[in-house]
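Entry type: protein chain
Record version: 2
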Amino acid sequence: MSLRKNIYKTPAELRLMVAPGLATAASLAAVRSAIRAGISTGELDAIAEATIRGLGAVPNFMKEPGYRHTICSSVNDDVVHGIPGPRLLEPGDIVSIDSGAELGGWNGDAAISVVVPDPSRLPVVAERQKLSDVTEQSLWRGIAALATVAYLNHIGGEIEDYIESQGSYGILEDYVGHGIGRSMHEEPPVFNYRVRERGPQVKPGLVVAIEPMVTLGGIETFTRDDDWTVATRDGMVAAHWEHSVAVHAGGIWVLTAEDGGAAGLAPLGVVPVPIA
């Protein structure tokens, strides 16, 4: 994937990306509060769509050719791109919800993973919750690194090092993060592991979606018969966390977090700065 010369946004364009980021965050907050055993992934999709449209935005996943839903809902060994529908969540499931909103021609994209409570299988729930927590914390370490590194690909090493320090996990390599702006998926790629190339400069105007995808087993995947859902080859469960982050003259700002990332970055000694 070759880099375009216009991967950097202007200050005015960065300001326009705040609203779709917040709409994306709101949709995930609404879905998170609704997740429980017995709810269908289709119902979660409807909640996300209503939230996004209620804020004057539109679901940008619906603009992907052939996709007709607001979220991707990936349960257990489904890693990403799961299609919402009649499937009911069960106790102990880990479900990853990916959502995005477009407003004024600009995009937001983010994802969370949630473990459905199951008092009868506490060890399973604990293992899956740790997987989610490790994946989320690796995301925050990648975001924190974005505040100091000179080149984008340096953050992949930070993500990888943290995950490996927490246990034996698999970091997907076939699916990575991306730039975001006028389109939901833009250049440059954002790796969740160490690579030789240093990537583009981290400087004001860079906006990227960082999204580690981590499994309890191997990293080999396949696409199910629906031509969308990506699942682990070994059947082990996975987690997926994502935020869209802007670099600007004052620092960094997490566009898809209501607080700009303040809570997630505070333990790492980074203070996000609002886009002026």
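Comment: The CA atoms of residues 56 and 103 lie 7 Å apart.
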